[in-house]
Amino acid sequence: QVAISELMEKLGHYTLNIERAANEDDTLYDGLDSAEISGYLKKGGFFIEPEQIILEAPLKKIGAYEIEIIF
Question: Model pTM?
Answer without folding.
Answer: 0.87
